[in-house]
Write a structure and sequence with these properties.
The structure holds 2 protein chains of 2 kinds.
Chain A lengths: L2 E4 L16 H23 L4 E2 L2 E2 L31 H5 L1 H8 L2 H10 L30 H21 L2 E3 L6 E3 L3 H17 L3 H9 L8 H14 L2 H23 L10
Antiparallel strand pairs in A: 2-3, 4-5
Chain B lengths: L1 E11 L2 E11 L5 H11 L19 E4 L2 E4 L14 E4 L6 E3 L2 E2 L2 H9 L19 H10 L7 H5 L1 H4 L9 H12 L9 H5 L12 H5 L6 H17 L2 H14 L1
Parallel strand pairs in B: 1-5
Antiparallel strand pairs in B: 1-2, 3-4, 3-5, 6-7
Helix pairs in contact in B: 3-6, 6-9
Classes of the chains: A mainly alpha, B alpha+beta.
Chain lengths: ~270, ~250
């Protein structure tokens, strides 16, 4: 009895927790790092991003580009020659901004990348702390504007799935209805992105959360309840949609390179 | 009967150290039972605050194996008894003695929050009418037992000691309960942003993890309040729309 030990001073990484607390931040760090590296590489490629009626979600909407999916034709003549061009770079900032400012990802990457804190009750590396009160993190409050863009992108990606249902016969040039593995992959991508976007905390607020009296607006209450339903699994939707959007790009890329062959189901 | 070792922090504001107490444990015991047993058999001067032993009074908050918990709701069967179990006072508050901390800062903070200000009564008898769906959200926040485990785990208070700038998750939930109340007419958004420092919360969700009442503190309380702050201070279109609506309603 009464065997005394000194109270340890908590410095970076120190805790009294006996569990493997670092597993979750490490998984988040590895998962997000892989995605960031792959998506950056894919965005700068500027080729192998479409295969027939399929287009990679990283490159959609293709504002300018060489594929038949382009909205306004090829790269404009006024584009500076010294500036790297890739259709993905024109659009990818919007979904990236939506994820970077997302309430779930914020909490996750503050822990995994900035150790602020590394995990609950684990010592931090820095003494100073500003939170999201001052620049640059006060800019996280722009999230709802990225939400508006994300909703637009969701509509565009849904249209891409519609396009992926119409295959052009190379001999006759006529398009006919069909479903390929790529169609299914792009459709699942839209479903997962919709699950993630419709569970957004900002959307929850805008749909009805701003009200104090739901009974005064039934449509708002129903919309709020619907968003709340998705919001309960926001983390799961976030990770599934992140993985799948990367996989959808990889699938289209490998088909375009001739490494994988798209299988027609119907 | 099995024996387990409890490393209990003993000391006061000047400092302290861990003391090891091996004690018999039986099936169904909680951490508070073990602490009471140590108090009765080995350390009569061990200071420990407790009351209901049913997870409703919020008195026996402490850190068990490094995580803020109610000692009365932490079963020994959930803990790895082959190793010593550490029990410490809450880190976010000044220690008085052993496991007892000074929580008075919390009560001072609560006094500064604008109180409930209902609209005029709906009926001549001085009563109000509310729909269940209007009050559902607020009822979740009213489950809070003020154990202050959420305050303890919050790194803004615990590690950075920003008690003067940030009111902590417990009181953000209190503000949410008032602000989202269907009868309340008070506006607390400006205070939330400035004096109460909601921007200091960086959404780690540790408060939600430790809440013994399973209140979704971050998702249902803090983030909706952050969005209300965005409405008033960071959304230019929302700001213009609100002003326009006010003008049209005049």
């Amino acid at each position: 009895m009464n065997e005394a030990t000194a109270l340890p001073r908590r410095s970076f990484g120190q805790t009294m927790r006996p569990d493997i607390w670092w597993t979750q931040p490490l998984l988040v760090f590895v998962g997000l790092s892989i995605f960031i590296v792959y998506s950056t590489w894919a965005a700068f490629q500027g080729r192998n991003y479409f295969f027939g009626n399929y287009i990679s979600p990283f490159y959609s909407p293709e504002i300018f580009g060489d594929s038949p999916h382009s909205w306004f034709g090829p790269k404009p003549a006024w584009w500076p020659s010294w500036l790297i061009f890739s259709p993905a770079l024109l659009v990818l900032w919007a979904p990236a901004g939506f994820r970077v400012t997302c309430y779930y990802y914020r909490g996750a990457y503050y822990k995994a990348f900035w150790a602020d804190p590394p995990a609950c009750t684990v010592g931090e590396p820095r003494k100073s702390y500003w939170g999201e009160c001052s620049f640059p993190l006060v800019m996280q409050n722009v999230h709802r504007y990225f939400l508006y863009l994300a909703l637009f992108f969701l509509w565009v990606l849904t249209y891409d799935v519609w396009e992926a249902l119409w295959f052009i016969d190379p001999t006759t040039g006529k398009s006919s209805f069909g479903i390929g593995v790529g169609t299914a992959i792009l459709a699942v991508n839209v479903v997962l992105l919709a699950g993630y976007t419709f569970g957004c905390h900002s959307l929850r607020h805008l749909a009805g959360g701003f009200l104090d009296q739901f009974s005064k607006s039934r449509p708002c209450y129903r919309a709020y309840a619907c968003v709340t339903c998705f919001n309960r699994r926001h983390m799961l939707w976030a990770w599934l949609s992140l993985f799948w959007v990367g996989f959808a790009d990889l699938y289209v890329r490998l088909c375009s390179m001739g490494i994988w062959h798209d299988l027609r189901i119907v | 009967m099995k024996t387990a070792t409890f490393k209990i922090w003993r000391g006061d504001a000047k400092g302290g150290e861990f003391h090891e107490y091996p004690t018999d444990v039986a099936e169904g015991m909680v951490v508070l039972d073990a602490v009471n047993q140590v108090q009765a058999m080995q350390a009569g001067d061990l200071a420990c605050r407790w009351n209901c032993k049913a997870g409703k009074c919020g008195s026996c908050s402490a850190e068990v194996n490094g995580m803020p918990k109610l000692m009365c709701m932490t079963r020994l069967s959930e803990l790895p008894l082959e190793k010593p179990i550490t029990i410490e006072p809450m880190k976010a508050f000044p220690v008085i003695k052993d496991l007892v901390t000074d929580l008075s800062w919390n009560f001072r903070v609560k006094k500064k929050i604008k109180p409930f200000k209902p609209r005029p009564p709906d009926a001549p008898d001085g009563t109000w009418r509310m729909q269940q769906e209007d009050i559902d959200r607020v009822q979740e926040f009213r489950k809070c037992i003020e154990c202050f485990l959420c305050q303890d785990v919050c790194h803004v208070l615990r590690d950075h000691q920003l008690h003067e700038k940030f009111i902590g998750p417990r009181f953000l939930i209190h503000v949410a309960a008032l602000e989202m109340h269907p009868l309340d007419t008070e506006d607390r958004i400006e205070e939330l942003r400035n004096a109460q420092g909601i921007g200091y919360c960086n959404i780690t969700k540790c408060c939600t993890k430790v809440c013994p009442e399973s209140i979704q503190i971050t998702d249902n309380g803090i983030i909706p309040l952050k969005e209300r702050v965005v409405d008033d201070f960071y959304d230019p279109f929302g700001w213009v729309w609100k002003r326009l609506k006010k003008l049209l309603n005049r």
